[in-house]
Amino acid sequence: MCTGRVDLSFILRAFSTGADGVFIGGCWLGECHYVTEGNYDALFNMHLCRKLLEQIGINPERLRLEWISASEGMRYAEIMNDFGKQLKTFGPLGKGEGMDASTLKLNLAAVTKLVPYIKLVERERLRVRFDTQEKYAEYFASAEMNRLFDELLADKLAISRIMLLLRDNPLSARDIAATLGLDPAEVSRHLNSSSRFGLVSFDEGQKCFALA
Amino acid sequence: MENTPVEKHLVDTSADRNMADVLVVGGGISGIQAALDLADSGFRVYLVDKSPALGGKMSQLDKTFPTNDCSMCIESPKFIECSRNPNIDILTYTEVDRVEGEAGDFKVTLTKKPRYIVEDKCTGCNICVDYCPVKIPDPFNQNLSENKSVHIYFSQAVPLVTYVDPETCLYLKEEKCQICVGVCKTNAIDLHQKPEKLEIEVGAILLSPGYDTFDPKLRSDFGYGRMENVVTSLDFERILCSTGPYEGEVRRPSDLAHPKKIAWIQCVGSRQVNEGGNSYCSAVCCTYTQKQVILAKDHDNGLDATIFHNDIRAYGKDFERFYQRAERLEDVRFIRSYVTVGREIEASKNVTIRYSTFEDGVKEEEFDLVVLSVGLSPPKDAERLATTFDIELNDHGFCKINPGNPIETTRKGVFVSGAFQGPMDIPEAVVTASGADALCGQLLNYRRDKLSRERVYPPERDVSAEEPKIGVVVCHCGANIGRVVDIPAVVEYAATLKNVTWAGENLFACSTENAQQIADAIVEKGLNRVVLAACTPRTHEPLFRDTCREAGLNQYFFEFANIREHCSWVHSKEKENATQKAKDIIRMSVARAAHLEPLQEFELPVNKTALVVGGGLAGMTSALNMAEQGFEVHLLEKDSDLGGMARRIHYTLEGMDVQAHLNELIRKVYRHPRVRVATGSTITNVSGYVGNFVTTVEAAGRVREIAHGIAILATGAEEHRPGEYLYGDNERVLTQLELEGEIVTQSEKLDNAQSLVMIQCVGCRQEDRNYCSRVCCSQSVKNALKLKELNPAIDIHILYRDMRTYGFKEDYYREAAERDIKFIRFQPEDKPQVEAVGDGLKVTVTDPVLGHKLELEADLLALAAAVIPAEASRDLAKLYKVSFNPDGFFQEAHVKLRPVDFAADGVFLCGTAQYPKHISETINQAYGAAGRAVGILSGDSVTASGAVCDVTEYDCISCGACITACSYDAISFVETPQGKKARVEPVLCKGDGLCNAKCPTGAIYLKHYTDDEIFAQIDEAVPAG
């Protein structure tokens, strides 16, 4: 099994079960034990997943990917100790981010639900291949990538979160924005488009939105 | 469920009982490896050992350097492999009496000594041992603890049967007692057993009798045998070991107290020309002592360790770092001094040691325990072996070998492997064993596969209708896990987990007995999943998968929980946390196990062609041997000529004519009808996998594809170009290889030289190249001796850090000193200074004996330049998916036991590309690689894993994401009544699983690593609540 087999949903599942950090260890770039070079895919996935985590208010540094070969026992120990220390400074997942448990759960569930869609979009629109680690970092920091991400994923994710939130009980746009930490104007925009698609309806009496 | 005993389904052996291809004499690690390799290559083997069990000296060691792997843990799976192999007949407690005939047709008479136990009946239950009234010193524990007159040699013994010591048994001595006979439930004890004569016929014989440790009693001055707290290093191995006399606690014999201050004395019985000593260096003691220091400090961090040594010979791969690791520990002193053992202090039984240093003069110091680092002597019965097998011994009493082929003895058809060749470390014992397989294969190719038999397993039980019934076995691994993790608590916890129907513990799950218990539990408890919480799947998964198969369970129902490497070894200081982590790991594995499914493996045909990359000595030796064994070989060389680095070496210390050997080899390679040589060639692409590689080669402007089943990488090494000591600026400064060239051509430069200085360790044993180049000390001594021979008046100084003329090469070092070649030791922080002065050179060096600077005039300066990895290896490694060690040399699959295999299946290594080595060592290794490679080539198929991808067609939306992700072209669309669907060709799938992560619907799944299996594991990773 290759690091490229590490599915987005594995990482999200680990966070959902309460892990404070997720570590992925792989072969050095260019030293793939298959011919697949899936470690480049793992690297891409890590960056994408970090962006998704950031989007839902989780410290992206909680996900770490390192290259360690079989002969680098010392390096492995050092990295794990360092990651452990780092996680301690972050505090428990959610708490460290100032997010209550139910919102954390909802946020992770919202991304998890999107995984099949993310995979499609990744293949169609986002996938790139570079030869160095730096270039991946550069790409994910670039305006172009951010624009694509917002266009393809950010809205979907926000809507997914709103839908999950409304599943429990109807809420006003203001409450939605407060709970999810989103911009109220953005929330209104999403609610408008969602009601156009018949996903939510507005209850005039209670001044609340509910699932349609 | 009914109890059905687990049976070994082997073909009846009685018919051809007395006929085999090869007789292997000596069942230590070398003999075991040879037997396994021979069996893999299509030969039948008798594996004979004079002791009651297989294992040899390696089984007595606690850990092995430089990785500190548990010695028994890595060796004992091989015992079981031997005992399960239908082509290996093990005869323990057996001696060879007579050998008649000739190569290809030996008749050998053996005597099976009476064990006074009927082997077939003994179950190894130990009841007789419990009842036996006679206590005797335990030979396996170096007589440091007691055992009974009837006992099992050690707990992982193969065969796992008792034997009676005739010297101490009351019945055999005085016909007094027969308690054991009465208590044995299977009537296995026969105190009237007589020696049994066996006559067998074999085609070849391999001698792998190993060594004996030097007996310090022979020299009374070490106090051994007189002072209780003076022990040998082998005694100390047992003291360190969890199965040893003190159950893994470091105690001393006199009062069983934990020693706080231990001294090691190096070179006991080695490098000594006085009466009773061995003149040669034993080659392994420096590093095993460092290992013992590290381990002793591991047991007791407050321990004070002192090592009295001569040169530190850290000449092997990763040894230099290992030495540094030991040296940097707190309260560890390495003191360079000759010592004498003083006296035993009456009250405390402490022992004093007198030593002297340049700084402080003579001192006497008291120690709680003194460990004598004893050397390696020839086996005690070497003379008898020589007579029986009609072979010659060398001056030291080891086997006399041919430097051009160290695996050959003086008798045709009789080969030698392991330490009987001379003192050597485990990997070399393994390499020479595989090499012996290669040479036997060359001799007996005509009868390959004639006598060998197939392994047969019982039919697999169909468990598809059953609920998961998981058995959990937690292994102590001696003290490796047991000392840190609270095993009973873990077992108790495991039993409470969902789907677990049975949980138990083992001292060593890998012993025959415990592996059998696991097999029995599968049958008796009706288990359909097994979780073993023990060590690593890398070394032990094949063994336990096999155990499942033997019990009629599909091998993919086996799951490893690694609580050693992932837990006890890294958390040895935090026992409670380690116990919790062990529980966590097991909980995860159990959750995963419930989802496991039975899988079938594939047999893939093997292309019986070999490819060897590198036309130096190593590559040519491998290529020629494989061709002689009947296989087609492609030999690729990047240069325009064959020969490699050996072209620049003309003679060896032992007097081998390298060029004659090389030219003969080149001639044979070119003339062999099955070897195809391509010089000036470059590899541009490699595809495929074990059994079916395709390598694209460009040579002379022509590109072609070579299909082959295996590859051997023998790309050699290069000489470092020094950037110091005026090298390159002054023509009087040469490297040792250049000097050798001058000597051979008898150049004018040399004729005029009356003084010469050599500087060692140029470009290595330093920060950026933190290894010893192994060959340079011997090379310098060799050239110095040659120069003295040509011009006895020449003045030669060798400036060194440690003289590392290990093994028999020590004799030449001594000879050099006797011939007035002067050796001056320098410190790395105070390197010699070289200046050009007039017509010559001036070398300034601090003499540690005199304590001041010396100025040496030199007409020539020879630098022992480091051996560095070849440039070409780097690209090649990428193409063949193999890795390097931190110094840039090829990384073998396992330092000790797979020294010529790469982790990538079907790719092997040999020669200096692995690490610098001498010519004889290179030849040993080249044969070793050929032996391993033929293990694959001689089979008709290789087995491909069942852990490959498959598609749930219903979920497939034919998006093609998996197809673009697959680099093996294993996935394609097929038309189905439901439309286009992805389908996997299992033979092509390598199981990387990349496609799984791309599939939006989860339609494609990697068997054995499915989402469900992994989710189950993730869900259990964080303890609930």
Largest sheet of chain B: 5 strands, parallel
The total count of strands of chain A amounts to 4
Strand order of the largest sheet of chain B: 5-2-1-13-24
Order of helices and strands of chain A: HEHEHHHHHHEE
| Annotated CATH topology of the largest domain in chain B | FAD/NAD(P)-binding domain
The number of helices of chain B is: 26
Outline type of chain A: globular
Please indicate the count of domains of chain B: 6
Biggest sheet layout of chain A: 2 strands, parallel
- CATH domain class of the largest domain in chain B: Alpha Beta
Summarize model confidence as the mean pLDDT of chain B. 93
> Which architecture of the largest domain in chain B does the CATH hierarchy give at level 2?
3-Layer(bba) Sandwich
Structural class of chain B: alpha/beta
In helices, the fraction of residues of chain A equals 55-70%
Whole-number count of domains of chain A: 2
The overall pLDDT average of chain A reads 91
Description:
The complex is a heterodimer of chains A (212) and B (1025). Chain A has 212 residues and is mainly alpha-helical. Chain A contains eight helices and four strands; from the N terminus they run αβαβααααααββ. Chain A has helices at 8-16, 38-55, 73-90, 101-126, 133-141, 143-168, 173-180, 184-196; strands at 22-26, 63-67, 200-203, 208-211. Chain B folds into six domains: 22-113 and 195-211 and 378-447, 3-Layer(bba) Sandwich (FAD/NAD(P)-binding domain), CATH 3.50.50.60; 213-377, FAD/NAD(P)-binding domain (3-Layer(bba) Sandwich), CATH 3.50.50; 470-597, Rossmann fold (3-Layer(aba) Sandwich), CATH 3.40.50; 605-716 and 870-942, FAD/NAD(P)-binding domain, CATH 3.50.50; 720-866, FAD/NAD(P)-binding domain (3-Layer(bba) Sandwich); 948-1006, 2-Layer Sandwich (Alpha-Beta Plaits), CATH 3.30.70.20. Chain B is built from 26 helices and 52 strands. In chain B, the strands form 17 sheets. In chain B, strands 5-2-1-13-24 form a five-stranded parallel sheet. In chain B, β43 and β44 form a beta hairpin. In chain B, α1 (29-40) crosses α2 (71-84), α15 runs antiparallel to α26 and α16 packs parallel to α23. Chain B is globular, with a radius of gyration of 30 Å. At the A-B interface, α1, α2 and α4 of A face α24, α25 and α26 of B.
